[in-house]
Design a protein that fits this description.
The protein is mainly β. The chain has two helices and nine strands; from the N terminus they run αββββαβββββ.
C-alpha cells in the first residue's frame, strides 16, 4: 500500500506512458505530494535531479516496481501529459487512475483509486506538484 503511494508521488516528478516517456527539462526539480488513504494522510517533499540524456521516466517500469502483480493498464496522451490507470493484483491490491502533466518548469499529478481488497476497499487520493528550481543539478 505504501509503495503504491510512493510510486504515485514519484510519478509527480517523472511521468510516462506505456511505450513513451515524458521528458523533464534537465536540472533540479523540487516536488511535494500528498496521499490520503481513508483517514490517513502521507506527505512527501524533496528534490530530484534530471541530467540531460537521463531525464525521462517510464510509468510502466514504475508500476511494475511497486510489487509483483502491479502494472500500467492504460495511458492516453492528453495536453502536456497523460491520463493513466495502474492496477495491482498480487499481494498488494488496488487501482489508481489519474492525470499527469509536465511542462518545461512545472508538473502536476492528480489521481484517485483504492487499495486493500475489493470487499473492503480503502479510498486513495494522490496529488503532487513539481517545479524546476535550477537549470543544473550542481550546487
Amino acid at each position: 500500500m505504501i509503495r503504491i503511494v510512493a510510486i504515485a508521488l514519484t510519478v509527480a516528478c517523472a511521468p510516462a506512458a506505456l511505450a513513451q516517456s515524458v521528458t523533464f527539462s534537465p536540472g533540479k526539480w523540487s516536488y511535494e505530494g500528498t496521499a490520503r488513504m481513508g483517514p490517513a494522510t502521507l506527505s512527501d517533499t524533496g528534490d530530484e535531479c534530471f541530467e540531460a540524456g537521463d531525464n525521462a521516466y517510464n510509468l510502466s517500469e514504475a508500476a511494475a516496481s511497486i510489487a509483483p502483480g502491479c502494472a500500467l493498464v492504460t495511458a492516453s496522451p492528453i495536453e502536456a501529459g497523460y491520463s493513466f490507470q495502474l492496477a495491482c493484483t498480487g499481494d498488494i491490491k488496488g487501482e489508481l487512475s489519474g492525470q499527469i502533466t509536465v511542462g518545461e518548469q512545472a508538473g502536476r499529478l492528480v489521481a484517485e483509486g483504492w487499495t486493500g481488497s475489493q470487499d473492503t476497499p480503502v479510498n486513495l487520493s494522490v496529488t503532487a506538484t513539481a517545479r524546476r528550481i535550477a537549470e543544473t543539478c550542481g550546487g
